[in-house]
Each structure stands twice: as C-alpha cells, then as structure tokens.
Amino acid sequence: MESRISRRGLLRASAAGLAAGAVPGLVARAAASESGAASAQANAGAVAVASANGIEAVRIAVELATDKKMRPVSAAVRGVAVVEADPNDMSVGYGGLPNELGVVQLDSSCMDGPTHNAGSVASIEDIMHPAQVAELVMDQTDHVNLVGPGARQFAIDHGFPVEDLLTDRARKVWLKWRSTRTGDDRLWPLNDTNPVDPVLQGEARPWGTIHCSVLAPNGDLGCCTTTSGLAFKIPGRIGDSPLVGCGMYCDNEVGSAGATGRGEAAILSGGSWLIVERMRNGDTPTEACLYALRRVAAQAERGSRWQPALWKDGRPNFGLTFYAVRKDGLYGSANMRGGGRFAVCDSKGPRREACAALYE
Ligand code: GLY
Domain for residue 293, yes or no? Predict the structure, then answer.
C-alpha cells in the first residue's frame, strides 16, 4: 500500500535526515533551504517557485491558486504566460532566440499532481503559448508528448492563433551569430567567450527557460516549464523542458521540481525526477537540488572524456539550476556555478532569493 506523506511528516523526516547527515559529503552552501524552512513553517498558503525571470509568474500563480482556487498546474501555466508573451525575454516564447536556420521552435511541458498526468509539446512553431498547448495535450488526449508539425496542428485545431515569434531583436542576434560563426560548432555549444549581444552578457549560446512549481493551499501540486531552448540549436533539437522527469516533474505525495540551463544535463541525469525522489526520502528541496547537481557534475566529468569542453577548472563548464517545492511548503533552489537567484511567492509576496551553489 502506498503511504501518504503529510506536510508534518515530511518536516519530521527532513529534520531527522539533516541530523543524521542524509547527504554525506555535501559541501555546498544551503542558504535557500534555511530561509525556506523558516517561511514554510509560517506559511500554510500557496507557494510558487520559479526561475529568476518568473517573478511575475509566481505572483500570478499564487494569486490564482489562492483566490480563484485554480489547480496548481493551471496556475503555473497562466503564470508563465506573461513571460511567453514578453518580447524582451529571449529564452522563452515570443522573442526567444531561434534555431540555426532562424526559426523559433518552442518546448514546453506541464504536470498535474492530483492526477499524475502530464502533457508536452516539443519543437512547436508559430504558437506563442506552448505551455497552454501542453496543458491541452494533458487534459484533452491520452498522449503525453506531441512534437513539431503535429503539435502545431493540434494547437491550431484548438483555436491558437498562428503568429510570427521571431522579433527584430532576436533576428539581429541570430544574424550576428551566423556571420561570426566559424565552422561547425555543433560539438562545442559551450563557448561563452564570444558575446553576440550585450543582453546575452557574454553567453553565446544561452539556454534560458522558465520553470514554475506551485503548491496550492490544499496541498496539491503542479508545475510547468516553457522555453525557446538552446539558442541557434540544430532544427528539431529537443531540450529537457518538454521531457517529463527532466525539465519538470511532480508527485502529489511529495513535491515538485524543475530545471533551467543546459537541458542535455537535466536529461542525462533525469534531474527533476531525481529531486522529487530525494525529497520523498527526506531531503529538503535545497538538499535535493544540490544532490542532483552533484550527480550532474559527476556525469559531466565522465562525459568530458568524449567532449572535453564539458569540464573546465575542475567543474562542469555549463550552467544548470534546479528549483523545488515540497508538499509541506519548504522550497529551495540550487545552481551549478553560484551567483544565481530564483523567484518565490508565498504569503510574504513575490521576491527573489539566492540559489544555493554547488561550486562558488
Ligand atoms: N533548458 C532548456 C533547454 O536546454 O532547452
């Protein structure tokens, strides 16, 4: 028989786990889990966590989950819609950077805790809100994943408008990338010494993305991740965002998690699924995120035998951030290289907090 884990039970398990050193050898900072612990015990309402670009998304998600009693997955999907429609966010939806042919291809998925159902669309073109299409795949079909032209047609059939998602700004960045490209860089997508646009802050091939996980006041969970994916990707490349267990995952008994950053690393580690399973066994969200990052780092070191660029100065040569919220309201986030922030909203309102870091 499956056992239910109550909010209180999870807090007890976490405290016991911490006392017993549940994550041996963990050397990274865990500031976010400590601040989360304080707020979780004072907070019985909705909680939403997201990537730093989701400060408005978490506010909307908490409002919808609280005032409208919207299920958390729908609150997350509605929350990220503002970023999908924002031309200034070059990593998500409208305004996102295109693939190597100059075509914007979007990936998204969402998951509903109470039904343990999920939907996703990958490599979809001309549709501004792929997260809403993913939600329809989840609700209106018995499928989980739709890809490319099939996903686009499904969206059109359900009334989504066909829109040109390539903004002038994104097109100019793509043209500049194309004009400075030297040879085939498909095996080296990590070169961050060749800035193509000031807004990209020196990162030539950003992964961007928004993830949002939501805990409703009644304890239900849901989540969503949506992105334009790796800039200048090979057409048809699918990242972690539309893959259940990689770019997002939730289990209504335990918690919810998601990822932004190098999608290939989140895929190869099954990162979001791993975080939820670690929380099931008593990790705090921050501990679980750090554990997954440690696994990613070990995998990257092995991977560097094939692709040396994955590993530099004794650490992974890429960014990856995980986010998690547990059924008891505890939340946290951790990233690979330090210095990052994440968005959170609870009864104290929307704000950004520091991510824990595996490497400073
Ligand atoms: N994490 C987004 C991507 O890799 O596409």
Answer: yes
